[in-house]
Amino acid sequence: MRIKSTSWLIPFAFILASGCSKGPDGAAKTEEAAKVPVEAAVAARRPISASYSGTAALEADHEADVVAKTSGVMLKLLVEEGAEVKQGQALARLDDASPRLALAKVEATLRKLESDYRRADEMFAKKLLSIEEHDKIRYDLENQRAAYDLARLELSYTTVVAPIDGIVGKRMVKEGNLIQLNQAMFHIVDPSPLLAVLNVPERELGTLKPDQPVTLQVDALGGAAFSGRIDRISPVVEAGTGTFRVTCEFRDETRRLKPGMFGRIEVVYDRKQDALAVPRAALIEEDGQTAVFVIAPSAAEKKPAEAKEAAKTPGKASAKTEGKADKEVATSVPALSAQRRLVRIGYADSEYVEVREGLQEGDRVITVGRNAVRDGTEVQVIDAAAPAAAGKSMEAAQ
User: Fold this and answer.
1) Burial zone of 353 (CB within 10 Å; 0-12 exposed, 13-18 middle, 19+ buried)
2) DSSP strand pairing (184-201 vs 243-250)
3) Which of 252, 349, 253 is nearest to 58 (CA)?
4) Which of 145, 218, 326, 350 has the fewest CB atoms within 10 Å around its CB?
5) Nearest CA to 267 among 313, 327, 198?
């Protein structure tokens, strides 16, 4: 059996390998494509506030349900929803025919007993009446006076009045309805002040104090801000949630704030004017540690000086090598990589966080794309403002 020679395959494979290999331009494009695009921000000094923020719904400090104290048919509604009322102001009237007749009956009996008591008093003075009979008539008179006062009170209940100052927030009855005893008829709220209750983690127990200023932002009013203060702080930490209640008070003279509105509350308890800060988006929380990715020169970067030296020594390199070196020098750009660095943070607001250890002023940290890199990953920094500037330039050219 003859074995066919395969030596002719070797040069053919070499030719294929030579044809498939990429030149310097292709290699540069591949290397550029392998870099992860990111956006970065510079660690700089800026004012920053120490604050606690949370969300809460507004509720009225004074509100009351107006209930019927007697039964009867609703004859007249005197106010509507949205009406401002004062304490004691009439809100509605019920049918008072039956209570009025009851009062007249009790009053007639009272007048009779008053007359009996006057005659008994005269007879007792002449010793024509015993002290027992005199006292019995006096007790009957006092009892009837109490019944008369009760009948007058029942008659007064047919006029429903406001128990507090405020605004009629809801009406639950209509004219002609049969109103039962203790039935809810109106809901009145006093919009000043309004309260918002925050459930704050116990770690903030030592930083929040009564009368500290707070700011409320309400999305329903276009993000308008309202000033307030901490009214009271609960001395008890709930074991189940690890939080305590902080009640904030807001007085809005414009009355744009309404009970039930939802808003964001910020309590600023300290402020630094010159703190080294980075955007919140740069922070990485892993394994109980806080870190950032800092952009630094890559360790594998080829130094431009070495490329120049190779291009200037023809004795050590061929003409082909000289041309390649010159091209690399002309197109060389610094290679950048992401370096993970642990930091210790301090105060934080809605956008920035103070860095107390781990960074220096001027360091660039990754804010967009940090989840796609690891320690040592080569990156390409994209200027977020570049596309917008390019678009404006094109518009100006047109």
Assistant:
1) buried
2) antiparallel
3) 252
4) 350
5) 198
Domain edges within the chain: 33-47+275-397, 51-60+188-273, 74-186
Cα 162 to Cα 186: distance, rounded to the nearest angstrom: 9
In the block, residue with structure tokens 């023809």: 314
Query: Strand pairing partners for 284?
Result: 291
Give the residue from 341, 339, 353 showing the smallest Cα distance to 281. 353
The residue count of the chain comes to 398
Q: Give 169-219 pLDDT, tens digit per residue.
A: 999 999 999 999 999 999 999 988 999 999 999 988 888 999 999 999 998
The closest of 18, 71, 281, 93 to 178, measured between CA atoms, is 71
- Which residues, including other chains, have CB under 8 Å from residue 217's CB and lie 6 or more apart? 223, 224, 225, 226, 263, 264, 266
Q: How far is CA 335 from CA 171, 174, 200, 303, 308, in A?
A: 72, 79, 47, 10, 17
- The DSSP element (H or E) to which 214 belongs, if any, is strand 213-218
Spatial distance between the Cα atoms of 329 and 324, rounded to a whole number of angstroms: 9
Q: What residues of the chain score a pLDDT lower than 70?
A: 1-33, 299-334, 384-398
Q: Does domain 33-47+275-397 match CATH 3.30.1510.10?
A: no
DSSP element (H, E) containing 245: strand 243-250
| HEC string for 87-121 | CCCEEEEECCHHHHHHHHHHHHHHHHHHHHHHHHH
Nearest by Cα to 246 from 260, 265, 261: 265
60 is written with which tokens?
């009225």
Domain 51-60+188-273 class?
Answer: mainly beta
Read off the tokens for 74: 């609703």
Q: What is the pLDDT of residues 236-275, one digit of tens each?
A: 999 999 999 999 999 998 889 999 999 999 998 888 888 8
Q: Residue 72 belongs to what H/E stretch?
A: strand 72-77
